[in-house]
Structure formats: structure tokens, C-alpha cells
């Protein structure tokens, strides 16, 4: 089963995504802060990371940079979610090597399609 | 030659000099100085070294002792061609230290000691009085020469009367042009120009007589030399002691004589002129001396045996029937005498008034220094000094009877002034010289000179009895005035110079080595010895650090120098420091430069005082204060205005800086505001949408449906709350809020707030410290709104206080018509730079502590309090985070 | 005050100016020496010759001073230190 690591501090959004993606047949782990997320990437070796842009402690962008700094994660697909919806944030994320970018709120079908696409299914 | 023609010529000449001085003063006051103060005028003004003693006495001296008269001009020649040693430094120091006389220089070097100033002044006056008498004598003598040769019966006024008239005329001229105005630099342009003209007259006169003698009477230069070669007189042999001694003495005199110091240093307008004078002045001396010996030679040959050799310059042309030439010679001698008396009198009067009269007057009337118009007093003192000095000279002339040979009196004066030399040279080359040493050396030297040379000059039985002269003071053989310590067989003059200077130097060295200089002395010593070191100079002025703002200095400089001049000066200085813009760093060098610049406009003392004011430093010297006292009122007003302005300036600048900081931060915040609103709205929306879609699919088990329904509900509520807050804030900000005023009990309100706030992070257990008695207050206010503020503050404490054993203290105080409630926790508090921001919208300080809420709480609190007629503010310095709510006890509807 | 790193060799102009100053300092000493010479002459030397000699020395001193002075009057050419 393909592993998805969801990094999201809003419990309700995390629950919604977990429900949607598990139903699609992915194994979903949820983590709510940056430091633990980085450890989990090493432990779980996920096939996809979904990353909220605004998190306590490390921001989404910082986590993204930290992940990309490790060559082992060079090919790891990362989907970033943001509620700010500012162009600047998006550009910064793209420069940092994000694979895909999506604004909150989103259609469930939309995110399911994106995840499938990123996992090559 | 008719005597009345002589008198008329004389008066016309004097009138001409008055005119020259007057015109020059007029032009100088209009700032047209270029030609007036050229190197040529400087050099010619130096020629007051050549007095009537030179003009008449040199021929007399040559007739008596041959070549010895040359020593008097060779000494200055050596000093001038060696200007790089001493004169250059003296000039630099004189300009830098704003020295007004030689007494001032000595006093200034040794810690601004007035004792030394008085000492040097006394020496100068005592030494110069016979010298001035000598000039009066030569003028009266020359008058009488004409009177005797005049065939008319027109009665010659008696000798004393002539002297009185001459002295009175000189006093008038000196007072008119010497005390016209009070220049900080003590420069007298009119007088300098007049003596420059007189210098030309005396040179031309002497050259004319000389040329007439050599070519007209002597048969050409070669014949003249042969004639001199063949003249045999045992007195003409060069005496080694006197030859060397007199060269040294005249070298010392040219530096120390008050009038020489006046023209050399004080009247100097540009240091560069000295380089030209270094050879031009010796040339003048060379030309003056060139024909002395031939005139003496021919005079000895042609004049009757009993003729006074001191008058040969005049009598020889008369004898040969050259009336016009004699008249020219007379004018030359008259010029020599008058120019010397004028400058010497000014120099002495400056010294007497600055070091004796003014200090005495200020001591008698100390309040005058602060309030009165010192200008008038100083000018009056100058005028009295001038009259006093001339009266002394006149009196000496009347008493001495004018009998002594001209040359001898000049030498005595030289030897007297030479006593200043050790203190002077020691002062500019040796940092170790002290006030005590200088006083000791000067007094001993002065006393020795008086005892061995000056007093005996009145003749045996004059002041010193023949008894003492013969057997020594107190009958001690080794205290004989002209054979001190058994040194017999020496020439009296050389004997006196030798002993006075030897003892002088010994006293100076011993006193200096054994005493310790006070701080002012040490600073001044360093400034004098290192006169060519600019940085040190700046340090002496005291500008090593300061608190003045460059803007304030610029502001001041603009008012004084004019806008353009000040700006370009500041810009140039900034560029020199390698900075762009107009505001240089306040380096000691820059400040010293600025002070010098300002000094050009308002006077050095004033400039120094003004910059001192701005720096709040009192390095103003006593001397500075005296100079400034005349302008005390203006300066005090001026500096008060400056200070006020400076305060206002820095206040405004600070406010501007603060506002600017806030604005930039706010603009960053405004950006963040939109982003925040977006985030805060989208986050609940995301959950709601996702779950509604899931529910809409309809294939969920019912517990899940209920759970997800709950989530949708909660997030919808969150959304509503956020919108409420925003709405609330906008209503409060617009002041359109409806207040529900009523009486409420403060303690109960706090109870309510605590209960409500306990919902926030309920897991944390706070120790709430209250003083219930103080809370027994009934307020007339909108209780719900106030409670809302309290809840917010308490919730914040619950959220952000990072202490492991959190304490919240609620302190209530009643202050006038207001109630003050402080909420103080024991956490880390809020960083200083963030304190100004926390009441802004969305100013959540750390993402870390994000525990729900959108960061609008404190912004709302602030608006509520404003609506309630109160305030909420952050209390810094309370160890933890502390907020103070201040609210009126009785709120009125209108308020 | 000596600069932090005074160059070992000075520029030619500066070097000349320094030597000019040395000459200026030397001048009065030379003059004094020359003016003391007549004291050692025998008494046979008449006043005429001595006078010519003294005036000659005098003119020489003036000439040398006039030669040296213009160079010294110029501001110090960028010299880091005054070799006293």
C-alpha cells in the first residue's frame, strides 16, 4: 500500500483528508507539527507528503526546504496546501521545489485526482 | 633751514601718517585687505626693530667702537634666516592660541598664570621705559640741532616742552588708531600701514645720506673702504666677548621685545608671509647698516671734534649745506622714533590692561564680568595704559636728563627683555617647563639684570650708591653689581647678560624639574610644544567627544556663516571623512575646524563658548570668559535659544523616527492582515466543505454522520465568531457602538471574567491572586463590554504565560475618578520591540502560541476601552506580561 | 605624528623638501660660524676688510635664505612625518 504523510495542524481538516484518501486506498499518517513530521518522513518513507503551509513551530515552507535539502527526498512528491492564497507564498514554494500546490478550500474530487496523479496511479 | 619750515614739514608728515592710517582702517573695515596686508607690508612693519637708536645711535656707535654696531643687526638676521627653528613655531602658536602679547604667550603657556603675565608685563615696562625715553630724546635732540643751526631768532621751545608735545602727539595717534576697536586678534591695520610707510621713509633717508656721503664726500666705495682700513683707533678693535654677546643679545631681543612680538606674531595675518620676511627683513637690515660706517667715518673726519656722533646723520648734511637732505634725514629719524613709540606703546598697553588693569578691575567689581559692558572698560584701560606708558617714558627722559649715549640705553632694554627668552624657548620646545620654573627664572633673571645693569646705569650714587658699587651689597665682595661672584674684568653689559641669563636658566630648570605642573599647564605645554600636531591641538580644545547632534551644529553654523557657506563647509568635511551627504562625524578634528571657522565670524572666544554650550562641556578658559563677558547677554540668549532648538530638534527627530518605524511595521502588517483574514476564513471553510461533500455522498455509517455533522457545526461557529469579531471591531472603531450603561460591581465582573476565561486551556491551573477588599467598587459603565476586556486579558495570560507554575495577579486601585485594574502574570512578558504592536489587528506574536482566535482580541479590547472612556495598555517592567486597564468610575453618556 | 606605515623611501619632491628644511635649519648655524671667524683674525686686519667680509657673509646668508624660503613656504607635500 502506498504511504501518504499528511502534515496538518487543523485537526478537522486532517480528519477530512484522512477519510477521503483512506477511502481511495492510500495509507494515511497524520502529524501536526514540523519537527515530528521530519522524523516521520525518515521513519515511514512516505510516497507522498501533503503539507499545510501554516503550522506551529516550523512553517510549511521551512519544512519543504528541510525536506528538499536531503538528497534522499529529491524525488519525493510534495503537495502543498495553503489557506492564505497569496501569489507570493506560491512562488516561494515553487522555488523551494514543491511538486504541486493547492488552495484551501478544495473539492474533494480535486484533491483525490491530484493525489492519484502524484502517486502515479 | 628755517625752523618753522621744519615744524611745518613735520606737521604735514604727521598729518599724512594720520591720513594713511585712517584710510587703511576704513578700507580694512570694509574688508579690502588684499594689498594692505601683503608680505611686503609685513616685512616693512618688522622694521620697527630699527628705532632712533639705529637711525642716529648706530652712527654714534660706529664712530666710537667701529664695527660693533653691526652685531645689533646680525643677531636678528640669524634669527630670521633660521626662521624654521623658532619664528615659525612662535607664529603658529600665536595664531592658534590667539596670543595678544608676549606676556600673554608666557602666561598662556604656563597654565594661563596671571602671575607670570604680570611678571613679564613689569619686566617689559621697566625695560621699555628708558627705551621710549630714548626715542623722545632723539626727537628733541634733532629739533634742537635744527634750532641751533637756524639763523632766525625764532625761539626754540625748551627741551622738555618739545618732548611733551611729541609725547602728546604720539599718545593721540596711538589712542586713535590703537584703540579704535577691540579686535580679538589685537590687529591694527592702520598703524601697521603707517609704520610700513615710515619704514620706507627711514630707509630712503639713511640711504640718501649714505649715498651722498660715499659718492659726494668720500670719493666712491673703494676710496671709502681704504679710508676705513687706514683709520686707527684702539676702540675700533673687535672685542670677542661683546661681539658674540651682542649678536646673541640682539637675536634674543628680536624675539622678545614687546613691539617686535606685536608686529611679528600678533599683527601677522598670514603665516606664509614669514617665509618672505625671512630674507627680506635681513635685506632691510643690510641696507640700513650699509652706509653707517661711511657716515661715521666722514663725520669723524669733517665734523668738529666736540660734535655729538649720535647726531651725525643730521649734522653732517647740515654741515655740508645740504638742507633738503638734512630735512629728509630728520624725517627718517622722526619716523624711526615715532613708529617705535607707537607700536611699543600699543604692545605695552595691551599687556598692562590685560594682565594688570582688567584683572584688578574685575577683582574689584566681579559683577561687571557678568552684566556690564566690558568693552568700554577695556578700551578705557587701554587708553589709560597708553597714556601711562608714555608718561613714564617722558618722566624718565626728564629725570635722566637725556645724557646717556643712545646705544647704551638700547642695550640695557635688550638685556632686560632677554630675560623672557628662557621661559619662552623652554615653553615651546620643552614640555617639562612649569609655572614655578618660569616664575623663578624670570624673577631671578629680572632681579639680576636690575642689580647688575639697570640700576647701575643711573650712575654711581644714583639708585645704587658708590659704596655698594665698590664693595658689594651688604659689603659682600661677591655681591658687587659689576663683578658678581668675583667675575672681575668683564664688560659690564656682557657681565650682566651672562649672570642674569645663567641664573635665570638655572632657576627655570631647577624650578621646572622640582615642581609638578597642574593639568592646564600640562595641556598647554603639550599644545605649545606640539604646535604642528593638529590632532593634539584639537584635543586641547576639548572636542574629544560630545553629545551634540551634527544637525544642531549645522543649524548653528548656518546662522553664523550663512546657509551656503555652512553647507559647503559641512559637505567638504564629510567628504574628507569619506562620507556622503552633509553631516560629518563629530571628530575632534572637525570640531576644531568648525570652531576656527566660526571664530572668523564671531571671534574665537565666542565660537569656543558656543560649541562648548552645544556639547554641554565647560572647557572654556578664564581668558575665554573674560573675552566673552562683554557679549555675555547676547551669547546667553543665543545659546539658550540654540539649546531649546536643539532639544526640539532631537525631540521631533525621535518622534519622526518612532512614527516611521510604526508605519513600516504597519504596512508589513497590512499585507499580513489580508493574508491572515484569508487564512482565518478559509481554514474553517475547508473543513466545512470537505465534510459536507462527504456527507452528501450519503453512504456513511450514522455515528460518522453525527461526528462529521458536529465538526461542520463547530467550524461554522468558529467562522461566525470570527465574523462577529471583525464586525465588532469595525463597529467599535467607527464609534457607532451602543453602550449599555449601568452600575456594576467590579469584583463580580472579575469573577465573571475568570469563569468565562477558564474555558481557555482548561488544563492549565492558574494561581489567581486577588485582593477582594479593593474590588468593592461600583462602577458606572457597560459591564458586558468591560467583562469582555477582562476575559480577553485573562485568556491571553492563560494562553501565553509560559511559567510552569503560572500566577495571575489582579490588582485594583482607585485613582482620582478612575479605577485601575492590573493583570500581571509571571511569564516571560512581551519583548520591548513587540509591545507597540500587540494592540494591532492580527498581531499574534508567535505561531507557537496559537490557541485559537485570530489575534483580534487586544485590538478589540483597545477599541472597547476607548469607547468606555478608558485605556488598556501594556505595563512594562513587571517581570511578566502586565496589562493595565484604566476606566472612569462614573462614565457619563456623552463621554 | 608618524603614520602607521611610513614608506621607506619618500617621493622625490618630498625628499627634496625635507632636505630644504635641513638647509633652513643649518643656515643660522653656518651664519653664526662665519660671523665668529673675524674674532680669530689678527688685530692687523683693519676695519675696512672686516666690514667687507661681514657684509659679504650677510649677503650670502640673505641669498641662501631667499633661495630656500619659497620651497619651505609651500604646504608640506603630503609628508606623513616630519623628520626632526
How would you describe the overall organization of this protein?
The complex is a heterotrimer of chains A (121), B (895) and C (84). Chain A is 45% helix and 20% strand. Chain A has 5 helices and 5 strands, in the order βαβαβαβαβα. In chain A, helix 3 links the parallel strand 3 and strand 4. In chain A, helix 2 runs parallel beside helix 3. The longest helix of chain A is centred in the first third of the chain and has 13 residues, at 11-23. The model of chain A has no long low-confidence stretch (mean pLDDT 86). Chain B folds into 3 domains: 3-402, Sodium/glucose cotransporter (Up-down Bundle), CATH 1.20.1730.10; 544-630, no CATH class; 741-888, Histidine kinase-like ATPase, C-terminal domain (Heat Shock Protein 90, 2-Layer Sandwich). In chain B, 67% of the residues lie in helices and 5% in strands. In chain B, a hairpin with a 7-residue loop joins strand 8 and strand 9 (882-888). Chain C starts with 11 loop residues before the first helix and ends in an 11-residue tail after the last helix. Chain C is elongated. Chain C is built from 2 helices and no strands. In chain C, helix 1 runs antiparallel to helix 2. Classes of the chains: A alpha/beta (121), B mainly alpha (895), C mainly alpha (84). Chain B binds chain C through residues 66-67, 70, 74, 77-85, 225-231, 236-238, 240, 243-244, 247, 272, 275-276, 278-280, 282-283, 286, 289-290, 293, 532-533, 535, and chain C through 1, 21, 24-25, 27-29, 31-32, 35-36, 38-39, 43, 46-52, 54-55, 58-59, 61-66, 69-70, 72-73, 82.
Biggest chain-to-chain interface with counts: B-C, 42 and 36 residues
Which structural class is indicated by helix and strand composition of chain A?
alpha/beta
Q: Within the largest sheet of chain A, what's the order of strands?
A: 2-1-3-4-5
Average predicted confidence as pLDDT of chain C: 75
For the terminal residues of chain C, how far apart are their CA atoms? 11 Å
Radius of gyration of chain C: 18 Å
N-to-C terminal Cα separation of chain A, in Å? Answer: 12 Å
SSE ordering of chain A: EHEHEHEHEH
CATH class of chain A: Alpha Beta
> What is the CATH T-level topology of chain A?
Rossmann fold
List how many beta strands of chain A DSSP finds.
Answer: 5
Secondary-structure element sequence of chain C? HH
Low-confidence stretches of chain C: 1-6, 77-84
Shape of chain C: elongated
CATH A-level architecture of chain A: 3-Layer(aba) Sandwich
Q: What is the mean pLDDT of chain A?
A: 86
Work out the strand percent of chain C: under 5%
Amino acid at each position: 500500500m502506498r504511504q501518504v504523510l499528511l502534515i496538518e495542524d487543523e485537526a478537522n481538516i486532517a480528519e477530512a483528508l484522512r477519510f477521503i484518501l483512506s477511502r481511495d486506498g492510500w495509507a494515511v499518517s497524520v502529524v501536526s507539527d514540523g519537527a515530528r513530521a521530519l522524523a516521520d518522513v525518515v521513519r515511514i518513507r512516505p510516497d507522498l507528503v501533503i503539507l499545510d503551509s501554516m503550522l506551529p513551530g516550523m512553517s510549511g515552507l521551512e519544512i519543504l526546504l528541510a525536506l528538499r535539502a536531503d538528497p534522499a527526498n529529491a524525488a519525493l512528491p510534495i503537495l502543498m496546501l495553503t489557506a492564505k492564497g497569496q501569489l507570493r507564498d506560491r512562488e516561494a514554494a515553487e522555488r523551494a521545489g514543491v511538486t504541486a500546490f493547492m488552495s484551501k478550500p478544495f473539492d474533494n474530487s480535486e484533491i483525490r485526482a491530484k493525489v492519484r496523479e502524484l502517486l502515479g496511479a | 633751514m628755517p625752523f618753522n619750515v621744519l615744524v611745518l614739514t613735520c606737521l604735514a608728515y604727521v598729518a599724512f601718517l594720520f591720513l594713511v592710517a585712517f584710510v587703511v582702517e576704513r578700507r580694512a573695515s570694509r574688508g579690502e585687505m588684499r594689498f594692505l596686508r601683503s608680505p611686503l607690508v609685513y616685512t616693512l612693519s618688522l622694521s620697527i626693530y630699527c628705532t632712533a637708536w639705529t637711525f642716529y645711535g648706530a652712527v654714534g656707535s660706529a664712530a666710537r667702537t667701529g664695527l660693533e654696531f653691526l652685531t645689533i643687526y646680525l643677531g636678528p638676521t640669524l634669527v630670521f634666516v633660521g626662521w624654521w627653528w623658532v619664528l615659525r613655531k612662535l607664529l603658529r602658536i600665536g595664531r592658534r592660541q590667539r596670543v595678544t602679547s608676549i606676556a600673554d604667550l608666557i602666561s598662556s603657556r604656563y597654565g594661563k598664570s596671571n602671575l607670570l603675565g604680570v611678571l613679564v608685563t613689569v619686566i617689559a615696562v621697566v625695560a621699555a621705559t628708558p627705551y621710549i625715553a630714548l626715542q623722545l630724546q632723539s626727537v628733541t635732540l634733532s629739533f634742537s640741532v635744527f634750532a641751533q643751526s637756524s639763523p632766525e631768532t625764532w625761539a626754540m621751545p625748551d627741551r622738555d616742552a618739545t618732548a611733551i608735545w611729541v609725547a602728546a602727539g604720539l599718545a593721540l595717534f596711538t589712542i586713535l588708531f590703537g584703540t579704535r576697536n577691540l579686535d580679538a586678534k589685537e590687529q591694527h591695520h592702520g598703524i601697521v600701514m603707517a609704520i610700513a610707510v615710515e619704514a620706507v621713509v627711514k630707509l630712503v633717508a639713511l640711504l640718501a645720506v649714505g649715498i651722498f656721503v660715499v659718492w659726494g664726500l668720500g670719493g666712491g666705495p673703494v676710496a671709502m673702504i681704504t679710508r676705513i682700513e687706514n683709520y686707527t683707533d684702539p676702540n675700533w678693535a673687535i672685542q670677542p666677548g661683546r661681539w658674540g654677546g651682542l649678536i646673541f643679545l640682539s637675536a634674543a631681543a628680536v624675539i622678545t621685545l614687546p613691539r617686535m612680538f606685536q608686529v611679528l606674531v600678533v599683527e601677522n595675518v598670514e603665516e606664509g608671509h614669514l617665509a618672505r620676511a625671512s630674507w627680506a627683513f635681513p635685506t632691510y637690515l643690510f641696507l640700513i647698516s650699509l652706509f653707517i660706517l661711511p657716515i661715521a667715518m666722514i663725520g669723524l673726519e669733517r665734523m668738529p671734534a666736540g660734535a655729538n656722533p649720535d647726531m651725525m646723520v643730521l649734522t653732517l648734511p647740515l654741515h655740508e649745506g645740504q638742507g633738503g637732505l638734512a630735512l629728509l634725514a630728520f624725517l627718517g629719524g622722526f619716523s624711526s622714533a615715532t613708529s617705535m613709540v607707537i607700536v611699543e606703546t600699543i604692545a605695552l598697553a595691551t599687556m598692562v590692561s590685560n594682565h594688570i588693569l582688567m584683572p584688578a578691575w574685575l577683582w574689584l567689581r566681579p559683577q561687571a564680568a557678568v552684566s556690564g559692558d566690558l568693552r568700554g572698560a577695556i578700551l578705557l584701560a587701554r587708553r589709560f595704559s597708553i597714556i601711562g606708558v608714555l608718561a613714564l617714558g617722558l618722566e624718565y627722559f626728564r629725570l635722566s636728563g637725556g645724557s646717556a649715549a643712545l646705544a647704551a640705553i638700547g642695550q640695557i632694554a635688550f638685556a632686560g627683555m632677554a630675560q623672557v627668552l628662557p621661559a619662552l624657548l623652554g615653553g615651546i620646545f620643552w614640555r617639562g617647563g612649569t609655572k614655578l620654573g618660569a616664575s623663578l627664572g624670570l624673577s631671578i633673571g629680572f632681579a639680576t639684570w636690575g642689580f647688575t645693569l639697570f640700576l647701575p646705569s643711573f650712575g654711581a650714587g644714583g639708585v645704587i650708591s658708590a659704596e655698594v658699587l665698590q664693595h658689594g651689597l651688604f659689603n659682600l665682595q661677591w655681591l658687587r653689581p659689576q663683578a658678581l661672584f668675583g667675575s672681575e674684568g668683564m664688560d659690564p653689559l656682557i657681565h650682566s647678560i651672562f649672570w642674569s641669563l645663567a641664573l635665570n636658566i638655572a632657576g627655570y630648570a631647577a624650578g621646572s624639574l622640582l615642581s609638578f605642573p597642574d593639568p592646564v599647564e600640562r595641556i598647554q605645554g603639550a599644545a605649545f610644544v606640539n604646535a604642528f600636531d593638529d590632532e593634539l591641538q584639537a584635543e586641547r580644545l576639548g572636542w574629544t567627544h560630545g553629545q551634540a547632534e551634527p544637525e544642531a551644529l549645522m543649524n548653528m553654523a548656518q546662522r553664523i556663516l550663512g546657509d551656503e557657506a555652512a553647507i559647503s563647509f559641512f559637505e567638504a568635511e564629510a567628504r574628507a571623512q569619506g562620507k556622503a551627504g552633509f553631516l560629518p562625524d563629530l571628530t575632534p578634528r572637525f570640531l576644531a575646524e568648525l570652531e576656527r571657522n566660526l571664530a572668523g565670524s564671531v571671534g574665537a572666544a565666542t565660537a569656543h563658548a558656543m560649541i562648548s554650550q552645544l556639547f554641554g562641556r565647560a572647557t572654556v578658559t578664564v581668558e575665554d570668559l573674560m573675552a566673552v563677558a562683554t557679549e555675555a547677554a547676547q551669547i546667553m540668549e543665543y545659546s539658550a535659544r540654540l539649546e531649546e532648538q536643539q532639544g526640539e530638534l532631537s525631540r521631533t527627530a525621535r518622534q519622526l523616527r518612532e512614527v516611521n518605524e510604526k508605519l513600516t511595521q504597519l504596512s508589513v502588517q497590512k499585507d499580513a492582515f489580508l493574508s491572515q483574514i484569508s487564512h482565518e476564513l478559509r481554514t474553517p471553510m475547508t473543513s466545512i466543505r470537505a465534510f459536507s461533500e462527504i456527507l452528501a455522498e450519503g453512504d456513511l455509517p450514522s455515528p460518522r454522520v453525527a461526528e462529521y455533522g458536529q465538526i461542520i457545526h463547530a467550524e461554522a461557529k468558529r467562522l461566525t465568531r470570527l465574523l462577529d469579531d471583525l464586525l465588532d471591531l469595525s463597529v467599535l472603531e467607527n464609534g457607532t457602538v451602543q453602550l449599555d450603561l449601568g452600575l456594576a460591581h467590579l469584583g463580580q465582573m472579575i469573577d465573571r471574567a475568570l469563569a468565562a476565561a477558564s474555558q481557555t486551556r482548561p488544563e492549565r491551573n492558574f494561581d489567581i491572586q486577588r485582593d477582594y477588599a479593593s474590588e468593592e467598587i461600583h462602577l458606572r459603565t457597560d459591564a458586558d463590554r468591560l467583562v469582555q476586556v477582562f476575559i480577553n486579558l485573562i485568556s491571553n495570560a492563560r494562553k501565553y504565560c509560559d511559567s510552569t507554575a503560572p500566577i495571575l495577579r489582579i490588582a485594583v486601585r482607585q485613582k482620582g475618578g478612575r479605577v485601575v485594574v492590573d493583570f500581571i502574570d509571571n511569564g516571560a512578558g512581551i519583548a520591548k520591540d513587540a509591545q507597540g504592536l500587540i494592540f494591532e489587528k492580527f498581531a499574534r506574536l508567535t505561531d507557537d502560541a496559537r490557541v485559537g482566535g485570530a489575534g483580534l482580541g487586544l485590538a478589540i479590547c483597545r477599541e472597547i476601552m476607548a469607547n468606555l472612556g478608558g485605556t488598556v495598555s501594556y505595563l512594562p517592567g513587571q517581570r511578566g506580561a502586565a496589562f493595565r486597564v484604566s476606566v472612569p468610575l462614573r462614565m457619563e453618556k456623552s463621554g | 605624528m608618524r603614520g602607521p606605515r611610513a614608506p621607506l623611501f619618500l617621493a622625490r619632491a618630498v625628499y627634496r623638501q625635507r632636505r630644504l628644511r635641513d638647509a633652513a635649519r643649518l643656515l643660522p648655524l653656518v651664519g653664526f660660524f662665519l660671523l665668529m671667524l673675524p674674532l680669530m683674525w689678527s688685530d692687523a686686519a683693519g676695519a675696512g676688510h672686516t666690514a667687507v667680509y661681514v657684509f659679504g657673509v650677510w649677503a650670502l646668508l640673505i641669498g641662501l635664505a631667499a633661495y630656500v624660503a619659497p620651497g619651505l613656504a609651500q604646504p608640506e607635500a603630503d609628508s606623513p612625518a616630519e623628520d626632526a
